Amino acid sequence: DYLDQSIKSDEELTERLGLMTLAHIGFAPAGKGKRAELVALDGQSPASEAYKALRTNLLFSTIDHELKTIVLTSAAPGEGKSRTASNLAIALAHAGQRTLLIDADFRRPSLHRIFGRIRNVGLSNLTVQDADEREAITAVEEVPNLWLMTSGPIPPNPSELLGSGRMKELIAQMLSHFTHVIFDTPPINAVTDAVILAASADGTIVVVEQGRTTFPTLRHAKQMLDRVGGHTLGVVMNKVRASGGSSYSYAYGYGNYGSKSNQGTTTVRSADPSAFQPRITHRERLARIALRLFWRLRSDLDRS
Fold it and tell me: 188-213, pLDDT tens digit by residue?
């Protein structure tokens, strides 16, 4: 459909916007119960494997570029940025990386809900020096190497706080204690908060929803990041739906991979579409290689 401007494939992202897809996250209905959105806690689930792939692609695509501060955002609301930030943080922590996850979405904070915490003390308190780090940062008991900082009380001036000198001091302090600091921020096209943090971050990941996010919307978000010199690492394609229902065929020798199964082609029927992992295309492989070469060249130029 010519009038349909929604994003559906990696090839379109590369050809039209020059963006690389870092990972595909399968569609899964909203779960119930405490911490239902933290799918990466189950290290063997298909959804967890998707976030491990994101972690791997992220680290390898920036092999010559230090990646300590990472901004997670989206072009528009409801595309899954907070869930992606949370599960990426878990995946990094599982790899032994000391990771701090910060809720910098002062407009609609959600990490306290996702992790089952209260947000009486958090980032907003630290920016106005109303609390110290020991009060604002808490360990996530189920995940060694992961710490959480909630948003704290919602301030009246979010953009000003995020762009303040005090915020820069806080980030520098955090980097002395953690390998990675991940910021969950508001959608780019809604407010300027994400762009403010992206201007000084090592990299920004934009979460898009397959079939919903449009090219004009994402193009505008990318332009805003480019204007402030933000390093857009790539896109996470979220809520990817399997085509042809919930039956997936795995090629010979890979049926029920990781479990005891018969050899030969195996059809796995699953009620959970998150089990779907799209095949990496040749073009996507080339895009990943190109991105690694870009960062290597940039690093060489910075040294010269």
Answer: 999 999 999 999 999 999 999 999 99
Domains annotated for the chain, with CATH where assigned, are: 47-240 (3.40.50.300)
CA torsion 74-162-183-134 (nearest 10°) is -160
Closest by CA position to 133, among listed 91, 193, 181: 181
Q: Which residue has the tokens 């799209």?
A: 278
Torsion angle, alpha carbons of 301, 282, 21, 296, to 10 = -10
3-state secondary structure 92-124: HHHCCCCEEEEECCCCCCCHHHHCCCCCCCCHH
Q: Is 227 exposed, middle or buried (0-12, 13-18, 19+ CB in 10 A)?
A: exposed
Q: Which residue would you say has higher pLDDT here, 88 or 29?
A: 88
